[in-house]
Amino acid sequence: MNNTRIIHSILLLIFLWTGTGICQTSPDDTTFYGTCVDAQNGHPIPEVLVRVAPEKIEQVYPDQEFAHATVTDTNGTFSLTIPSESQAYHAFSLMALHPQYQAKRLRKEMPPGKSEYNLGMIPLKRTLPLQGSVSGEQSVGGLVVNLKMHDKSADFFRAAAPIEHAVKTDPTGNFHFSELYPIEYTLTISRSGRIIAFIESIHPQKQAQISVRLSQLKTLRGTVVDAQERPIAGAQIHATRHAETSHGHGALLSAAQTNEAGNFQMAVLETEPRLLSLEVSKKGYFSRVYENVDLGTMPSILPLKKGVGIKGRVILPQNIPADGQYAVKVFPMEARMEPSLNPLVLYRPVLSRHFSATESDFVVGGLFAEKYTLYVVGNGIAAARIDVDAAMNTEQVLVVADQSTTTLHGQIFWADTGEPIHDAIVSRSWYPWELQPYDMSMTLDRFEVETDVQGKFKFHNLTQAPYQLHIRAVHAIFETETERYQRTLLHKRVEIPAAGPEYHIYIGRRDGTPFTQ
Fold this sequence. Notes:
CATH superfamily of the largest domain: Immunoglobulins
Helix content: under 10%
Shape: flat
Largest sheet: 4 strands, antiparallel
CATH architecture of the largest domain: Sandwich
Distance between the termini: 61 Å
CATH topology of the largest domain: Immunoglobulin-like
């Protein structure tokens, strides 16, 4: 498999190198060149993928797409030219990638007028091996050994290295990994989808060889029943080992399903109770999670409570296409529904179900017999609300969602000069009905746009309601003494109602107005 990947990488590199070679340079072009060498012996490294991402002077976010690429020749040297726009950049990042070496990243300032950058020798360290052996059973061949890199988001290696590796043991229980990085990994060993060994932390730079002795699994038996103590067939049982640290990993140790009598039996790797949980679930019932599970004292009867459903009928705008969809999102009635710009304030729906626009009737199941607030939303459908008591919902509720969405658009100017600001970041607040149950702060960039060359921005598919805007723009001044750009990030927040004319918003030192229409 490694050979195949290397061949594919070489073909990709040849393609990129060929494409780079046919480009014609101009006086505005910027060229980078250097030599990649082995950090241990100084030998040149051919076929290193070299990628460059220039950062524009007035952009808030640095460019991380690394759109420009080439490959080192047999002498380890490379030359890469960025076409035009050299005066629009203030810095660049260069990344060197090779399957047998640790990725390396360089970042340098770009003073105006400079068109060539000689990076000299770029030493690359080799990736690390890890050898191991498995014992404790007669049959130790064909086991799946998996390594998963610890989740340290600030670490550069997270962006450049493969997150997971997997190999199989040979007939004698030996295994071998290559192309690892000097960072912690979680190691698991599994047979037929069941984990039979778990090691929280393995560091290949500190331990090039490990030995794993398998221990005997514990047997867990039980019966899943409903509120009337009737057996539930087809219920799923999952045993999960949780991470010991915030950057480590947990794992699904074992899974089972109940038979017609509601009984199950599963073998589980012995784990400290504080790290082990058991989840029992079935569609139409509320999942039940047992924390801090002691396998020796786990109860044999596991009850599940059946959920209730809400039936409804919806009236949508007439211009919704037949292949469109709407979503019914369920919130606790006491949930706050104010808009927010804070990614940590996530008032997410309890449930979110999607239906075809041609289906006017809907059913949302799996709820407690409590009071809820339902929102009907969708592309082109303004949010419509109704409060429902699930315990009393024996007939359909009617939700009138026939209002179309609107657009919020505006233009950003410098208050000092009146010039439009391009590449400014405009984030808008979101309402809880715009979220999904699984939304996290890193998924909320869909509420963010950049201004164009005229400083204009636009948000589509909004409900007519007030929205907060958070505007970020970069004010850049070149300092001749240091030959570097002094970049200042300016912020402004305003609250604007959706719909209406184009808003003009000013930002800068002399800014005294929130916005004008």
